[in-house]
Write a structure and sequence with these properties.
Elements: H1 2-20, H2 22-44, H3 52-78, H4 92-99, H5 105-112, E1 128-129, E2 134-135, E3 141-143, E4 148-150, E5 155-157, E6 162-164, H6 169-199, H7 206-239, H8 243-247, E7 251-252, E8 255-256, H9 265-273, H10 299-310, E9 314-317, E10 323-328, E11 335-341, E12 347-352
Antiparallel strand pairs: 1-2, 3-4, 5-6, 7-8, 9-10, 10-11, 11-12
The structure holds zinc ion (2 copies).
Length: 358
């Protein structure tokens, strides 16, 4: 009986896994149908006679857009998410130690003190994933569908049956972009044929008429609804936010900070598309960073704030979102130490100037 129940559980698990692929199958079906209608019915069947050079040009442009669309979609689906770096994972001994503690939070905070973290939980403690047994890097969230922590998680997308996060966000955005462009291309380049078609005798080529018109309407609606999503994700890229952060601002020790990762439009765009404009719209990996630590907006202001509050001499800032404050020696007036602060004004390290990090 136990064996039978176990077999049922396994069966249900695989059925559920199979169901997750239904939306992907739907997208592939629409694409295949659109391809058939565009390439065969509109250009090769001979029912719609266009000058050959026009047909060749239309098919050439259509195939380039289709290639970019399909490869972006495939890479969004198939990209394996980069794992959380090992320094965020407690060792087996540390995990055993935590098991014996009634409140492991102070111990976790101690482990996290050397990590580049700015975000905290609502209660102000270190963000820790009990499922994956790791300290969550900034912008990382646990996905219950994927059953793992995803770096810079945006959302879990059923249309790609994968999480959208640091590793595949650019591909996802390009998938949306080329869905809209491809739908627009299909509708605009076949509009003349459709109008011409319905002017003819109704009985003539009735099946093709409905096939082409129905495909036109479906792809039009598909493109229009995707353009809303594309618009939203364009806003997110310009403001350097994820979908999760747009709904719930990341929290530091000072409370929620809406635009914590805003670095200016150019740097925000570079974070996703990289610095080479020729590769920006190609589904190749050009996103900047390691996915586990991110530059933040106001480290410079914090340096100024520290400097005003403490009366200390000079400020400097580092690209990784930490603030460095040079400390005067009270007696000689010379700069002797470098203090490093996280965004929340928490001092993380004090080092002699000679060995200060560059
Ligand atoms: Zn997790
Ligand atoms: Zn997921």
């Amino acid at each position: 009986m136990a064996g039978f129940l176990e077999a049922c559980q396994h069966c249900c698990y695989y059925c559920l896994r199979g169901l997750y692929w239904v939306p992907v199958g739907f997208v592939v079906l629409i694409l295949t149908w659109g391809y058939y209608v565009y390439v065969y019915t509109l250009h090769l069947s001979g029912e719609f006679v266009k000058p050959i050079p026009v047909s060749v040009l239309f098919l050439f442009i259509g195939h380039i857009l289709l290639f970019l669309h399909v490869s972006s979609y495939a890479r969004t689906i198939l990209t394996k998410h980069k794992p959380v770096p090992s320094e965020f994972m407690p060792t087996d001994e540390q995990l055993d130690q935590m098991d014996t503690m009634e409140d492991s939070q102070p111990f976790i905070a101690q482990l996290a003190s050397s990590l580049p973290l700015n975000q905290v939980t609502r209660s102000g403690s270190v963000r820790y994933c009990a499922h994956c047994e790791l300290i969550k890097p900034d912008r990382t969230h646990h996905c219950s569908t994927c059953g793992t922590c995803i770096l810079k998680m945006d959302h879990h997308c059923p249309w790609v049956n994968n999480c959208v996060g640091f590793s595949n966000y650019k591909y996802f955005y390009l998938f949306l972009f080329y869905t809209v462009v491809l739908s627009l291309w299909f509708c605009l380049s076949s509009l003349y044929d459709i109008v011409h078609l319905w002017r003819k005798d109704l009985k003539e080529g009735l099946a093709s008429k409905f096939n082409v018109t129905f495909c036109f309407v479906i792809l039009g609606v598909f493109g229009l609804s995707t353009s809303c999503l594309l618009f939203f994700h364009t806003y997110l890229i310009f403001t350097n936010k994820t979908t999760i952060e747009s709904m719930d601002a990341p929290r530091t020790h000072r409370g929620p900070v809406k635009d914590l990762y805003y670095l200016g439009v150019r740097r925000n765009l570079r974070a996703i598309f990289g610095s080479n404009p020729f590769l920006a719209l190609l589904p190749v990996n050009t996103s900047e960073g390691n996915g586990a630590s991110f530059p933040i907006k106001n480290h410079h202001h914090i340096a100024e704030y520290r400097s005003q509050r403490t009366g200390r001499t000079d400020t400097n800032n580092m690209e990784n979102g930490y603030t460095v404050v040079l400390t005067s020696n009270r007696d000689s007036g010379s700069e002797s130490e470098v203090e490093i602060f996280a965004v929340d004004d928490r001092r993380t390290e004090t080092v002699p100037l000679a060995s200060s990090p560059q």
